[in-house]
Amino acid sequence: PTPVVPAPAAGAKGEAMEALRQRALACTRCANLARARKNVVFGVGNLDASLMFVGEAPGADEDEQGQPFVGRAGQTLTGMIQGMGLTRDQVYIANILKCRPDTPGQALGNRKPTAEEMATCIPFLHEQIDIIQPKVLVALGGTALEGLLHLSGISRLRGQWQTYRGIPLMPTFHPSYLLHREGDGRGGLMTEKRKVWEDLLQVMEKLGLPISEKQRAFFLPRSGSQA
Ligand code: URA
Fold first, then answer.
1. Rounded CA gap, 198 and 219, in Å?
2. pLDDT for 68-85, tens place per residue?
3. Residue 59 C-alpha to ligand 1 middle, in angstroms?
4. Which of 52, 65, 69, 118 to mutate to test ligand 1, by most ligand atoms within 8 A of the CB atom?
5. 58 lines ligand 1 (CB under 6 A)
6. Residues near 115 by beta carbon (within 8 Å), at least 6 away in sequence
7. CA 188, 194, 195: angle at the middle one, nearest 5?
8. Pocket test for ligand 1, best of 56, 76, 92 (most atoms within 8 A of CB)
9. How confident is the model at residue 227 (pLDDT cuts 50, 70, 90)?
10. What's 13's DSSP letter?
11. Which phi and psi angles does 206 have, rounded to 5°?
12. Cβ–Cβ < 8 Å for 170, 139
């Protein structure tokens, strides 16, 4: 008889993640969100990823498509990932909330998840991280940092390594923050982009990814340019 071969790690992870995804798709614990949603936005990417990004919650585009970070903030995140020399397929991307925070009476707009919504949904994310076991986590923005570590103060804590259940976690600004700064007329956008990029350089170093001179210089004022 054919010997019973243990399922490869990827297969076991795949089955565990699919079972978890099915539970998330059926979840109605936040009744208002379940009523308003078009899709549950579970997460995407490589189950063997060394690097996992955690955002806040789906927006309208993500709710429409059922995938995290596919709208404008998603384009910025994709650019960040590519800047690191990676593709979205090589990392895993998920959010604190799997459903879009509803905005009753408004077709557009976003709102921050409530503390109760976060507490209700976070077990799904804990399990996703348990399955993937990334080497490094990146918390995108204050909500991700608060959801995973109950820490507040993203401006103060970004760039400083934290630990989530033994996994190094780098807090950085949310891509939406950079998009807001782009349009708010305050200037200093390059400085804020550079801060995020320096956080990601730390992540690359931690992961042992190659870093070129060009990558080191991203978002720095070009030498010789006028201040
Ligand atoms: N912002 C997030 O935090 N997550 C998404 O998936 C999209 C936008």
1. 9
2. 999 999 999 999 999 999
3. 6
4. 69
5. yes
6. none
7. 95
8. 56
9. very low
10. H
11. -60, -35
12. yes
